[in-house]
Amino acid sequence: MKITATLLCLASAAALVSGCDSARRAFSSDKTAPDEFAVYSRPPLSLPPEYTLLPPKPGEKFQRGDSSAALAKQAIVGQ
């Protein structure tokens, strides 16, 4: 029983010592914060292809463009 307790204490001590480095890094104040004053260049925003298209007026029927099935059929058949 005494040997088992000793081995258990040694195994626990080994586990604690092996985790010291990661625990020290987690609780230390050496963390690097992001630079809030850095200016990053970003690509310009682009407009959608049909930006000038106006919404339908009240009571007017909504006109859709060709469906994707019709466009695929037109590409395959060539009509």
Task: Characterize the structure shown.
44% of the residues lie in helices and 0% in strands. The mean pLDDT is 78. The chain is built from three helices and no strands. The protein is elongated. The longest helix has 17 residues. It has a domain of 25 residues. With 79 residues, it is mostly helical.
The number of helical segments is 3
Roughly how many Å is the radius of gyration?
Answer: 34 Å
Structure summary, number of beta strands: 0
The share of residues in helices is 40-55%
Biggest beta sheet summary = none
Provide a compact summary of the structure.
By secondary structure, the chain is an all-alpha fold. Helix content is 44%, strand content 0%.
Give descriptors for this structure.
single chain; 79 residues; mainly alpha; 3 helices
Topology at a glance:
Elements: H1 2-18, H2 20-27, H3 68-77
